[in-house]
Design a protein that fits this description.
By secondary structure, the protein is α+β, with helices and mostly antiparallel strands. The chain folds into three domains: about 120 residues, 3-Layer(aba) Sandwich (Aminopeptidase), CATH 3.40.630; about 150 residues, Aminopeptidase (3-Layer(aba) Sandwich), CATH 3.40.630.30; about 90 residues, 2-Layer Sandwich (Nonspecific Lipid-transfer Protein, Chain A). It has 13 helices and 19 strands. The strands form three sheets. Strands 1-2-3-4-5-14-6 form a seven-stranded mixed beta sheet, sandwiched between helices. A seven-stranded mixed beta sheet has the order 8-9-10-11-12-7-13, with helices on both faces. Strand 11, helix 9 and strand 12 form a beta-alpha-beta unit. The protein is globular and about 65 Å long. Pfam families: Acetyltransf_17, Acetyltransf_9, SCP2_2. Keywords: Transferase. This is GNAT family N-acetyltransferase. InterPro entries: Acetyltransf_17, Acetyltransferase_Eis, Acyl_CoA_acyltransferase, Eis_dom, GNAT_dom, SCP2_sterol-bd_dom_sf.
Length: about 400
């Protein structure tokens, strides 16, 4: 079995394999060469723009077995922007399943990402158990909010809402997004390929609406993108993205949405677990409002030294962390970190200091971006603690953590 990036002439087969596995019709309404040239010259999707980052597993006869996309992304992390990858479109021909093809691809790409000093990798799994074997762990818990529009408290607001109608308005959405996204670990620092969600909002043509909220000074402060959907035969506002710079901005957006109560039953959207929005339902018991909790993908730290260097610590001190990584041998071992005023000043691997905490890279990945309180970590099977909870909390503690990009 050979693992390598696909060649240009193999791109169409890779796309056809995706259509087979995810069961959607592949459409190529022009000659193969013309289709391919147009796709490469004017890619609409990020995966097409970085087609040369599609890795495939091939038989000795050069027959494609499996492939996946390793898409470059940048993630916010503890006040900085870190290079990362989004793993997507993981597909295998049904007659080549159970042959270890995807395993071989991961065994190839993970060390390569380390050499390129990629900080994090993220994916949305078909099976968490499967990807946990490669060092990924669930991350960025989402709260699904389903709020009865008639029970949302109305409040007055001094700003105004503006319906998106032209690409010239996109920069205002982008700046508003940056303000929101930069406060959460693992939110994507978007580029031009990440704004399909806005470009597809064509109210008069597909009934997908994007509204920008400006305060009374005319400054963009938030936005919402939604479309009509149905849940148990009831019309709902299905919100694809909700962004706000403050609670007062969110109040204004929710008040605006409540004006749809005569035509829609609920608004549905996902939000970060660190934001408590229960105040937007006056009565859960006497309404159709409800909440759900769900996983929102899986994270993996790739270049651990870079992650430890950029991480935020509490105060000044030192800690020694023992990591276990079966795919990236450079991450295996004991790291001694000295930090001052919240930042690492020294990180070194050592064989002469006993660890304060031992854990696999999967759990480390989820913990370092802020998915757990120290107390919650004590209930993780794979963690062995040799120090006080207070010392552990200098490194691993709850942080705002969320993501709203899909690969």
């Amino acid at each position: 079995m050979n693992i390598r990036p696909i060649r240009k002439e193999e791109l169409i087969e890779a796309k056809q394999l995706s259509a087979i596995c995810f069961e959607y019709p592949f459409q190529m309404n022009k000659p193969k060469e013309e289709y391919l040239n147009q796709l490469l010259a004017s890619p609409d999707q990020k995966g097409d723009a970085y087609w040369n980052m599609i890795y495939g597993a091939f038989t000795e006869q050069n027959e494609l077995m499996s492939c996946l996309n390793v898409i470059p992304y940048q993630f916010y992390f503890d006040g900085s922007i870190m290079n990362g990858t989004g793993i997507g479109n993981v597909v295998t021909y049904p007659h080549h399943r159970k042959k270890g093809a995807v395993k071989k691809i991961f065994q190839t790409i993970l060390p390569e990402m380390y050499k390129n000093k990629i900080a994090f990798s993220y994916l949305y799994p078909f099976s968490e158990s499967f990807y946990r074997k490669y060092g990924y762990e669930r991350s960025c818990t989402s709260i699904g909010w389903n709020l009865d529009l008639s029970k949302i408290p109305c409040c007055s607001y001094s700003g105004s809402f503006h319906l998106y109608s032209s690409p010239s308005e996109q920069p205002m959405f982008e700046e508003t997004y940056k303000t929101f996204a930069s406060s959460f670990n693992m939110m994507v620092n978007r580029d031009k390929y990440d704004w399909t969600i806005l470009k597809e909002a064509k109210a008069a043509y597909n009934n997908t609406y994007a509204y920008l909220y400006k305060n009374d000074a005319g400054i963009p402060c938030g936005y919402i993108i939604f479309k009509k959907d149905f849940d148990n035969n009831q019309a709902i506002l299905n919100c694809r993205e909700l962004v706000y710079n403050s609670f007062s901005t969110l109040q204004a957006i929710m008040s605006f949405l409540s004006t749809y109560a005569s035509d829609y039953k609920r608004v549905h959207f996902y939000g970060p677990s660190t934001h408590n929005l229960q105040s937007f339902c006056t009565d859960f018991a006497q309404s159709s409002s409800y909440m759900t909790i769900g996983s929102n993908g899986m994270i993996r730290a790739i270049h651990v030294p870079s992650v430890l260097k950029q991480a935020n610590y509490k105060g000044s001190g030192e800690i020694t962390i023992e990591l276990f990584d079966q795919q990236i041998i450079e991450n295996n071992g004991v790291f001694h970190i000295i930090f001052e005023s919240g930042k690492a000043v020294s990180i070194e691997k050592t064989e002469h200091v006993s660890p304060d905490v031992s854990l696999p890279v999967s759990l480390f990945s989820s913990a370092i971006v802020g998915n757990y309180t120290p107390e919650q970590l004590l209930f993780c099977n794979d963690l062995t603690l040799h120090c006080t909870l207070e010392k552990l909390s200098c490194v691993f503690y709850k942080k705002p953590c969320w993501i709203n990009n899909y690969f």
